[in-house]
Amino acid sequence: MSSKSLGILYGVLGVVLFSSKAVMVKLAYRYDVDTLDLLLFRMLFSLPFYVFILFLIRKKSSKTTIVARDYAWLFLFGFVGYYLASYFDFLGLNYIKAGLERIILFVYPTIVVFLTWLIFRKKITRVQFVAILITYLGVLITFWDELDITGNKVLLGGFLVLLSAITYASYLVGSGWLIPKFGVLRFTCYAMIVSTICIVIHYLVAGNWEFANYPWPVYAYGLAMAIFATLIPSFLVSAAIERLGASNFSILGSLGPISTILLAFVFLDEKLTNWQLVGMLIVIFGVTYLSIQGKKRANG
Q1: Cα gap 30→37, rounded to integer Å
Q2: Which of 131, 109, 114 is closest to 282 using CA atoms?
Q3: Where are the transmembrane segments (predicted)?
């Protein structure tokens, strides 16, 4: 198998496994688990693996000099990109379906474009502007139809998941210059450890201390999220990006909403209306169009 084919395979598997997280969260919520407890389980169960990986790569030296300020930025990006983004996402899933959650999260590339313009004053091209309009039209169609079905609670859930997308996009925009300094593996491990520390502190301050009183499926879902929706896909995606490049991999990301919707249909019996399916397809088209045009510009 060629390197490109292997990259596509890794990318597809990574996207599908990442998209399974929302379904596992919804399944765990059937046992009335607290949001912070579930997030704590996910991060604590994955923590030993990231620490072990850091131990394995401890002798690999960085290509550039790392100073104290770099570690401060790393802590900030771990706080924003993994802790805040995950917390908002888990909270939002209390109120909306897994399929809708993935569609809203999927707009993060358009938020990256906005933030790049806002922070770095990088001009938004006509192609980007059209792609953004298409994408948000799709979200509006999907979201509006959901309001007709479930009422105003979906507004809160949708807003929380949108905050998750914004914080994750902020992480992508801000950490791009830092990742090459540490390397993908070391940076990912450090960021996940920072996130776990933040969640533990949050729990010490605001937790209900009921984490030992849940039925065993809750812990099973927490462990499954840690391994199959966090650890394994994080390295599959890194391997895919290494072989395909970030722009090529971003096109594979369009499988995320489709995968979540199919998994939610099978395991949660979630159904989408015709208008929601239309909205989903519009969102996928808008983001894929943005990714493809970005790739063309990058290739000159």
Answers
A1: 14
A2: 131
A3: 38-58, 70-91, 103-120, 127-144, 156-180, 187-206, 218-237, 249-268, 274-292
Quote the CA–CA distance of 243 and 177 in Å, as a whole number: 20
CA dist 15 to 32, 206, 219, 258, Å?
A: 28, 32, 23, 10
> In 3D, which of 130, 132, 81, 125 has the Cα closest to residue 110?
132
Q: How many helices (H) and strands (E) does the chain have?
A: 15, 0
Q: How far apart are CA 203 and CA 218, in angstroms?
A: 17
pLDDT digits (tens, 9 = 90+) for 39-89: 999 999 999 999 999 999 887 776 677 888 889 999 998 899 889 999 999
Domain ranges of the chain: 3-298
**What is the value of pTM for the model shown?**
0.84
Q: Among residues 143, 78, 133, which one has the least CA distance to residue 110?
A: 133
Which one, of 86, 81, 109, 95, lies nearest residue 21 by Cα?
86
Q: Is 123 left (phi over 0), alpha (psi -120 to 50) or beta?
A: beta
